Amino acid sequence: MSVAIKPLCPSIKHKIFSVVPTQGFSTFEKLQTLKLEDCELLNLLPEDLTQLQDLRHLVINRCYLIAEMPPKIGKLSHLRTLSSFTVGSKALNKPGYGLAELHGLKLGGKLHIRGLENVPSELDAKQANLISKKDLNRLYLSWGDSANSQGSNVNAEQILEALEPPSTLKSFGMKGYKGIRLPSWMRNTSVLKNLVEVILYGCVNCEELPPLGKLALLKSLYVYGMGVKYIDVESYSSVEEKAFPSLEKFKAVCLPNLERMLRDEGVEMLPRLSELFIFGVSNLKLPRLPSLKHLEAFHIVEEASFMEGFVRNMPCLKTLQIYSFKKLKVLPDQLSSLGALQKLKIAFCDELEYVPEHVLRGLTSLRTLEISYCTKLKSLSEGMGHLACLEHFYISNCPELVALPNNMNQLTSLREVSIDDCSVLPEGLQDWLGDMTSLRELYILHCSELRSLPSNMNQLTTLKEVSIVSSVLPEGLQDWLGDITSLRELYICECSELRSVPSSIQRLTNLGKLTIEDCPELEKRCKRETGEDWQYIAHIPQLELKISLPEEEERTFTFCGRIRSSSWSRNFVNTGIQVNTSGEEFDRMVDGWMIE
């Protein structure tokens, strides 16, 4: 028998959540599996949970407010899975709440121990008896930031020493460790030999890392918030020995002192690294990365030397994302040598003014170009016309961009264009848009100067979707709209001066969906049965006329998920470029497990 408790509706899980009764579980005396997932406001488990003597699997995922476990959970002698165990403050002075409850349990799979700041001594930690649990393959240890924490740095070191796991672990993570030194078992490769994933998060006092480069199976590594200069300080005496031989994904976040991957120079390393994410790592000198395909770089101070280094060392790079390079004024010449690059995203580069023609000319494989929140960007140069493989072009929140290059009509592979919040831009829109015969999707959002669309748009015989939001259009859409017979979806929002649709829209026999939102006059004319323009749109299978809402009410546009530049850039602003310091990111990684 099993019971799974989840929010009643996943899409509104922050408002409606499951409540576990504080008593009454004893009626499920034959229960073997209990799953608690996404109950984000749940803070208490029933005390009579320990009466479920047949319980074998207690899975607790994404229930982050649970403050402590029910007393004497160690009585569940048949328990084989306990994915999360929280040491509450009662463990400091009451029996039945501490790590001793884990002593006799033959646990396997995943175990995340939270609240280690509440463990009073090394002896209490040793009672967990983790080393005997040979079926464990995922272990995560978390210290909280409670002001009432009783543990000193020395105490944290002793407690971690006592929590030695079996050598069967494939994934290990640690958050908020207050110690300066690592325990002996974390420096022993025989204990760590089977690790595939390591997450070290917010261990701000710690001055060393495990011998990560020596771990032959390690595929994923995430290091956040530490003061280390090197990721690995081990010696590599053999010429044939490679460091990080299997590592494929590496995230380095808020490591201000990091200089190199290895203390030893001249060692071959990272032959398989394919994904690299760096944030707030200003001094890192990157080695040659022959297999790197995806690079995300945030908030790099010395961007000139950084850019020169990665171009020289990453010949196979396919995706490059650059965020918050505050001094970057012009894309560097070195970018032009990235002939394999397929996707380039640039955002929050406040000083970026220009994208040189020769840089774009060299990006012969580029399929996606996305530029957002570059407030001084004035020109993209005629190099745009040389991006023969370009399929997706998104530009957002670049208020100084006065025009797009006229030769964009040479982009015969371009399928999608999205222009968002570029108030001056439409000056150059007229010259090439109607010639984009390969175009399938067009999104024009918050372009306040847009007063008309080019008349030759009727030549866009492959266009399937058009969205126009918050733009000043004339009283009626042009008659040529009826010539775009390939059109399947049309979305019009916040175009207050738009008052009618052309009768030619009747010819759009493939148009399956028309959405009109926050266009008061147009909504009246298109009202079902009675509106003056109803006769022109009655044939459309899916019609959505959305009444305007008061400004103070929160609204969600139905199309937002479809418009990449808008959704991505606005998301980026909302979350900021600041890294989460509360540990929620650690919890998400732990619950999702980065490597399967």
Automatic annotation (TrEMBL):
<feature type="domain" description="Disease resistance R13L4/SHOC-2-like LRR">
    <location>
        <begin position="334"/>
        <end position="468"/>
    </location>
</feature>
<dbReference type="InterPro" id="IPR056789">
    <property type="entry name" value="LRR_R13L1-DRL21"/>
</dbReference>
<protein>
    <submittedName>
        <fullName>Disease resistance protein RGA1</fullName>
    </submittedName>
</protein>
<dbReference type="InterPro" id="IPR032675">
    <property type="entry name" value="LRR_dom_sf"/>
</dbReference>
<feature type="domain" description="R13L1/DRL21-like LRR repeat region">
    <location>
        <begin position="99"/>
        <end position="226"/>
    </location>
</feature>
<dbReference type="Pfam" id="PF25019">
    <property type="entry name" value="LRR_R13L1-DRL21"/>
</dbReference>
<keyword id="KW-0677">Repeat</keyword>
<dbReference type="InterPro" id="IPR055414">
    <property type="entry name" value="LRR_R13L4/SHOC2-like"/>
</dbReference>
<dbReference type="Pfam" id="PF23598">
    <property type="entry name" value="LRR_14"/>
</dbReference>
